[in-house]
Amino acid sequence: MNRTEWTKEHIAGYVQSQIKEQLQLEEDVAPDDELASYGMDSFASMTLVVAFETNYNIVFEDEELLFENFATLQHMVDSICGKLQP
């Protein structure tokens, strides 16, 4: 799949699956749920960032790696979509 085929819905589905795998969840998380309430910590957050960078061939700069930028599924999707914009 190339960049032009990545829809926001596709990205949200991928992020959702990665969150569930990383946090060992069976249920989906709502887009605006605080992931810390599911056990997300800085290590889990950075593990997800590496997965996103690898999957989408993007790079998050050091100043973007703030926990609040990855605090919810929606924040993660928005961050990835911002990186994929031409």
From TrEMBL:
Gene3D superfamilies tied to this protein: ACP-like
InterPro entries in the record: ACP-like_sf (IPR036736), PP-bd_ACP (IPR009081)
Residue ranges constituting the Carrier domain according to the UniProt record: 5-84
Name under which the protein is recorded: Carrier domain-containing protein
Organism: Paenibacillus sp. BIHB 4019
Lineage of the species this protein comes from: Bacteria, Bacillati, Bacillota, Bacilli, Bacillales
